[in-house]
Amino acid sequence: MLRRLFPQSLLGQVMLAVAGALLLAQMASAVLLFRAGEQRREEAALTGAAFQLVNGARSEAGERPLRRALEDRRAGDRGQSGLPPTLRYQRTETPPPGLDITISEGDREAFLRELLARQGADPHAMRVAVVRAGDDPSLNAYAAERPRFNRLDDWRSRRLLIAAVQLDDGGDWQTARILEPPRQQGAVAAIIFQTLVIFVIVMTILYLMLRRITRPLGALASRVEDFDGSKANPDPLPASGPADTRRLITAHNAMEARIAALLDEKDVMLGAIGHDLKTPLAALRVRIESVENDSERARMAASIEDITTSLDDILSLARVGRPSDPLERTELAALIAGVVEEYEDRGRDVVLSESERIAIPLRATWLRRALRNLISNALRYGDQARVSLTREDNAAVIRIADSGPGIPVDQIANMLEPFTRGEASRNRETGGAGLGLTLARAIAEQHGGTLTLANTRSADGEVAGLVAEIRLPMDGSA
Question: Which parts pass through the membrane (predicted)?
Answer without folding.
Answer: 187-210
